[in-house]
From TrEMBL:
Single annotated GO MF: ATP binding
Species in which this protein is naturally found: Bradyrhizobium betae
SUPFAM superfamilies assigned to the protein according to its UniProt record, in alphabetical order: ATPase domain of HSP90 chaperone/DNA topoisomerase II/histidine kinase (SSF55874)
Claim: Transferase is one of the keywords in the record: yes
Protein name: histidine kinase
Enzyme Commission number: 2.7.13.3
Main enzyme class: transferase
Transmembrane annotation, as ranges: none
């Protein structure tokens, strides 16, 4: 039996199991007496819905049609917010370009992003600061770059780095690598991997269409981006500069 068939069957069983758990807890919330108990069970239902969203976002795709990676990452991020990050009062933000990937490679990207965001949520020390994690997805030529940036701190090469082994293995399978950067108040994990010939062609077409957009539309977008950058300083450039140490896999 093919590996893909087994994975899809496993996904179906987990999906059905989570759906059953949601139904059982929701029914218990209706039957139970007391406001506090109802609220507690309602929170459990919401938590399970969040994990169900994450599970659906990480399901192995079917078909061979190219997928917009940014859409998948944002859908995954929405599930992670609902399942965990909102409860930890950690804000999740996105800065993504439109990048087309082959389905299986986009799936691999999602698996890595999920692990890196969860890694940051578990191990970043935010002290008295409001926790923030940012996912930045960009394309530079034939290279895709995905940066997970948080405003927490942790020692370089801390013990939690062992948890990134699977993410590093998946990155190597994509022909890429994962690097870590450590700053005084920021930590970054950078995934980069080359696009395939098919992906390069599709993304060249996307970029060409964007360049042909009406000048007025581009001017408005440029002004909006300029004002946004003035309102919120992005420390990513400084963090990834040569002045910050990196740990490359």
């Amino acid at each position: 039996m093919q590996e893909g068939v087994l994975l899809r069957e496993l996904n179906r069983r987990v999906t059905n199991g989570v759906a059953l758990a949601i139904d059982l807890v929701a029914a218990a919330a209706i039957r139970v007496e007391g406001t506090e108990a109802k609220c507690a069970l309602g929170d459990v239902v919401e938590l399970l819905h969040g994990y169900a969203d994450v599970h659906r976002a990480l399901a192995m795709p079917t078909g061979d049609t190219l997928i917009h990676a940014a859409t998948c990452i944002r859908r995954l991020g929405s599930g992670m917010r609902r399942a965990l990050l909102d409860r930890m009062t950690i804000q999740l933000a996105f800065a993504t370009q439109s990048i087309a990937l082959q389905p299986e490679r986009c799936w691999h990207l999602g698996l890595i992003v999920h692990e890196l965001v969860m890694h940051a949520a578990r191990h970043a020390c935010f002290d008295a600061r409001a926790g923030q994690i940012k996912i930045k997805l960009t394309r530079t030529g034939a290279l895709l770059n995905c940066v997970i940036l948080d405003n927490g701190t942790r020692p370089a090469r801390d013990a939690s780095d062992r948890e990134l082994r699977i993410a590093r293995d998946i990155a190597r399978a994509l022909g890429g690598r994962i690097e870590q950067g450590f700053g005084a108040e920021f930590t970054s994990i950078v995934l980069s991997f080359p696009l395939t010939e098919r992906e390069r062609g599709a993304n060249w077409t996307i970029a060409t269409r964007q360049m042909r957009a009406p000048r007025r539309t581009r001017a408005i977008a440029s002004n909006d981006a300029t004002h946004a950058s003035l309102r919120s300083a992005d420390a990513l450039g400084a963090l990834l500069s040569l002045s910050h140490p990196t740990d490359a896999s």
